[in-house]
Design a protein that fits this description.
The complex is a heterodimer of chains A (115) and B (113).
Chain A lengths: L3 E4 L2 E4 L5 E7 L6 E7 L6 E7 L5 E2 L8 E7 L2 E6 L8 E8 L6 E3 L3 E5 L1
Chain B lengths: L2 E3 L3 E5 L4 E8 L3 E9 L6 E6 L3 E5 L2 E6 L4 E6 L8 E10 L5 E5 L3 E6 L1
Parallel strand pairs in B: 2-11
Antiparallel strand pairs in B: 1-3, 3-8, 4-5, 4-9, 6-7, 7-8, 9-10, 9-11
Classes of the chains: A mainly beta (115), B mainly beta (113).
Chain lengths: 115, 113
């Protein structure tokens, strides 16, 4: 069964609005979750590392004020795309390491389309 | 920084064997992973190599040579359902002591009858 659950799987929003994507770890506690972005036919680009109870660590070039990450509990991290624009349309995926750290489990991913 | 190279596309015949190579440059290397991603879906974990040598899991095997900064994924007895993108990913140590996983561009494997 799924180890990491992500919701929603697909979302369409109007330009200028905000969208929240949730990532939940099932049956285990995840102190660290990762948020990736993937454009069609491209690789996964790490956006930020979400740490429970502390500020997220953003990768270079990722706007922290635009992509708000909250990791308020050991089983839930959220990514909010604020003031979305069409160029933010992409596949967003969360993941978490296993305890012991050699395997990454991905959520189902969220397709965001900004119109 | 980190960089990985893998072929962008590979085509192979059903029932055959295919090898997807990956070379990497990084510091603080921990291990090399492989992931499979079908169109429209999320990546799924296939294998992880931290030490030199071959790891076998069913029809899939993965190899690592740390001294050569090189690894490969070997798929045997190819099936049509193996058509997907395959990503190699390096886990290494970043500043602050955190581990980071960087993905290659992905190799799109097409299995033909």
């Amino acid at each position: 069964g799924a180890v990491v659950s992500q919701h929603p799987s697909r979302v369409i929003c109007k330009s200028g609005t905000s969208v929240k994507i949730e990532c939940r770890s099932l049956d285990f506690q995840a102190t660290t979750m990762f948020w990736y972005r993937q454009f069609p036919k491209q690789s996964l680009m790490l956006m930020a590392t979400s740490n429970e109870g502390s500020k997220a660590t953003y990768e270079q070039g990722v706007e922290k004020d635009k992509f708000l990450i909250n990791h308020a509990s050991l089983t839930l991290s959220t990514l909010t795309v604020t003031s979305a624009h069409p160029e933010d349309s992409s596949f967003y995926i969360c993941s978490t390491d296993t305890i012991g750290g050699n395997t990454i489990y991905f959520g189902e991913g969220s397709w965001l389309t900004v119109v | 920084g980190q960089s990985l190279e893998q072929p962008s596309e590979v085509t192979a015949v059903e029932g055959a064997i295919v090898q997807i190579n990956c070379t990497y440059q990084t510091s603080g290397f921990y291990g090399l992973s492989w992931y499979q991603q079908h169109d429209g879906g999320a990546p799924t974990f296939l294998s992880y190599n931290a030490l030199d040598g071959l790891e076998e899991t069913g029809r899939f095997s993965s190899f690592l040579s740390r001294s050569d900064s090189y690894g490969y994924l070997l798929l045997q007895e190819l099936q049509m359902k193996d058509s997907a993108s395959y990503f190699c990913a390096v886990r290494d140590r970043r500043s602050g002591g955190y581990q980071k996983v960087t993905f290659g561009i992905g190799t799109k494997l097409q299995v033909i009858p």
